Batch of 2 targets.
Target 1
Amino acid sequence: MKQWLLRLEPIIWLLFGQGILLGTLLLTGWILVVGLAIPLGLVPAEALSYERAHALASSLVGKLVLLALCALPLWKGAHHIRSLAIDFGGAERDTAVAGCLYLIAIVGSLLAIAAVVRL
Amino acid sequence: MSGSKKTFVITRFDPDRDEAPRQQSYEIEVDPRWKVLDALNHIKDEVDPSLSHRWSCRMAVCGSCGMMVDGKPSLTCKDSLADHGDTVEVAPLANFPVVRDLVVELEGFLDKLKQVKPWIIRAKERAVEEGTHRQSPAEHQEFKQFSMCINCMLCYSACPVVANEPDFLGPAAIALGHRYNLDSRDEGDHERQEVFRGEGSVFSCSYANECSEVCPKNVDPAAAVNQAKFRAVIDWATSFVVPRGGEG
């Protein structure tokens, strides 16, 4: 398992890095628009009406953005929690902890892929 | 001498007599222009010759005199006493086994340095008559910053990952390996990638950035580690397209 983790480190780090860059960027934008701009009336609610939102989400770009929005923060979170666990003295349990965390990220990513494909 | 006094609380450890490190206080008169190392040398020469500490050049070049000063990794020949209070705590570098008093064991660190192959690797040696390897100032600039490391090990003392994962290659060794990977004369990138992605993986770094905070030579090892991670990802991805291990 440890050797497997070592071999997969590059792809895990890449997803973690994109989680920081793209995930945080998209999530912040999403919260700003849906959580603040629309409720405060800065953006008209019709701009994100069901039909418009569905059309946007059904396009290829929309699907990719939604997938990145759902999956990448999971990898960012999983990797951060793993580092945190090591910093708190969990280096000996790292393989098991990392395995569980990345499994959650994998399942979440697969569910996100299934969800955007069905849109 | 201005006549001002400071108390130095120094961690002492004699493996033949002590079961655990203990602290010993020395109150001495100090010159305000002194560095911490000057005070330690004064204590050794004038007060207690049994004190052991490592030092050499006294001008931040040899990297021998790294210690914990008031709980922070510090190059004592560069650390002014004026920046400290009336009581100064001096201890051996954290995250290293202690040999005696303020002297730490270097073997593990030197082994990590060797692992990253810090020398120019060529697929085929160049004959002397073919002349020197030429390098432009721009190519030299690519790695110059990372070649300024003096191996003082302050970064290892500050690194939370080194503290928890003894196998981690660590900031200085990765910065040094990365320095050779960036060198236009070098062809050993793939060999070092095996080390960078092995047991002491560069990916263990959680980017606390403490290594760059304490570096007395502004090497910025955290930047080197993260650039090394990116190169490792590219090398990993391209390894599926370009097979490795062929004859050079």
Target 2
Amino acid sequence: MREQPNAEALLEIARDVLKQDILPLLPSDQRYNLLMVANAMAIASRQCQQGHEPEQEELKRWQQGLDSDALIQPCAVEMSQNIRAGLYDSPDGRVQLAKMLVPSVRQRVLESNPKAL
Amino acid sequence: MDQSIVTKIERFIGEQLDCVDVKLSDIHKLSGGAIQENWAMVLRAGEQPPKDIVLRCDAPSGLSTSHSREEEYALLEAAFDAGVTVPEPLFLGQLPVFGRSFFIMGRANGVAVGHKVVKDLSLGGDRELLVAEIGRQMAKIHSITPDLDLGSASGSQSLDFLSFPKVSAVQASIEEFRQFLDNHHTAFPALEWGIRWLELNEPEPLPLCLVHRDFRTGNYMVDESGLTAVLDWEFCTWADPREDLGWFCAGCWRFGRGDLEAGGIGSKQALLDGYNSASGLALQKADLDYWEVFAHIRWAVIAIIQGERHVSGAEPSLELALTAHIVPELEWEILRMTGLRMIGLQATGASL
């Protein structure tokens, strides 16, 4: 059993120290660097929080949509090839594609920049 | 900058001006530019008043990903001759002078940093007038066309190095995007969908002209009264003029001011009014929708390429690493603009 606080909580408190205590002391030309560090920690923290479940759900959704038992990357390649071949151009095709894609992209935005949702 | 290099550059400028008394002073490197370096300095030549100049040269790493300095100088000359507000091109240097390609231009004053330009309303003068001026500047760039004989008109360098798309400019870009994705280790189905949408909805092409391809907030300078320079000419090519307008207006280049559709600084209508008045075209706001989707896709592909420079280990950089994380929000916007997001939200309902 791992120690508490876990990775997500550690990143969160470390980020608070950076932004609240260290940022005000920095010269202006270094503030951008620190804000990038804080942003990277926030993304890592959100990925820890989400865990692996979204990826498993994505795989299940894509396998179902493609009627395939392939892994995630081959599924992404097959979907891309289908898109390029025009398989989802029709209104029904678009619904089929949207069901696979929209939740996946939303999940990635949730981790990389939830403000964009 | 090493004194021996300064002496060589002084001698070079002296030869160009036919003047033996040339001195460079106040030399300092300007920030930014991993592939190119920009050095600000003051030029004193004979009895002439001192002149603020910038020397732009390849960085020592010599990475080459865009136009060469010679080509960039030719583009700057063409833009200057067309009346675009750019730093005045002064001298094209030669490799033997100090071992790197370079050119020298006048120095424009002002601020370029995107988020500062957007937030600091003391910059740029009246924002709607600024946006209209940017529209007029774009029209001047687009007045440079492949059939314009630059060489004989003004003694400028030719733009022969710019390649022509074998198909329409859009189809050439689509091929380029797909070629990149085919050779990349990870598939991006949402981007593939965006590219397919571009293919299915391609508008009737306009005649090819010089397109800047990176004219956005962050790449022009303003002072208290208005525009002082259009910067970064390294991605220019022959393409459809609407590409520049779409790139300028794309939501991803508004620096937190999504409500100000033209680069986070003003209205799209003011941009188009300025553009139409100078170009003679009659573009409407709706004409830019397609090109904003195009802009998001192109920026997403560039962001993947930049992220890969870090991921591959070739160039460890936090900034590049974070650029890779911009891709999901660009895809999210592409899904919205192409209608797929709404279909997905309706089809999956409460699960989102």
